[in-house]
Amino acid sequence: MNPRVKKVKPEDNYILRLTFSNGEVRKFDVKPYIDKGVFKKLKNISAFRAVRPAFGSIQWSGGQDLCPDTIYEESVPAERRGFSTIHETRPDYVLKSRKRKK
Predict the structure, then answer these.
(1) 10 Å Cβ neighbour count for 95?
(2) Rounded distance between C-alpha atoms, residue 99 and residue 3, angstroms
(3) Which of 7, 27, 35, 36 has CB 3.0 to 4.6 Å from 19, enough for a Cys bridge?
(4) Is the pTM above the cut of 0.70?
C-alpha cells in the first residue's frame, strides 16, 4: 500500500503539491485529467484551487477525486530541480498515457 495524502496545495499550471503520510513531498500534474468527464469543471482555476485532502486522497468541492495509489504513483518528488511537467520528468508516464488513448 502506498502512502496517503496528508496535505495538498494547488500550484500554477494545474499542479498539486502533496505531502504524504511518510513525509514525502511530491507534485502531481492534473492536466491529463482536465479534459475528461467530471474533471472538466476543474478548468475553472477557482474550482481547481478548492482541493482538499480527504480519506487519504484528494477531493474537490465538486466531488471530483482520484485514487490515492494513482496520485502517489504518478507524482514526482517535489525536490527534483527543474521540475516543470510530469511529462518531462516521467517518460514512463508519457508512454502509459499514449497507450491509454489508443
Answers:
(1) 10
(2) 26
(3) 7
(4) yes
Report how far residue 25's alpha carbon sits from residue 22's, in angstroms, rounded to the nearest whole number: 9
- The answer, yes or no, to whether residue 8 has pLDDT greater than 90, is yes
Query: Sorting pLDDT into bands at 50, 70 and 90, what band is 101?
Result: very low
Contacts of 70 (CB under 8 A, 6+ apart): none
Per this entry, what is the length of the chain? 102
Q: Residue for cell digits 477557482?
A: 46
Measured on CA atoms in the order 23, 9, 98, 2, is the torsion positive or negative?
positive
Contacts (Cβ under 8 Å, ≥6 apart) of 13: 31, 85
pLDDT, tens digit, 9 for 90 and up, residues 25-71 = 999 999 999 999 999 999 999 999 999 999 999 999 999 999 999 99
CA dist 20 and 3 (Å) reads 6
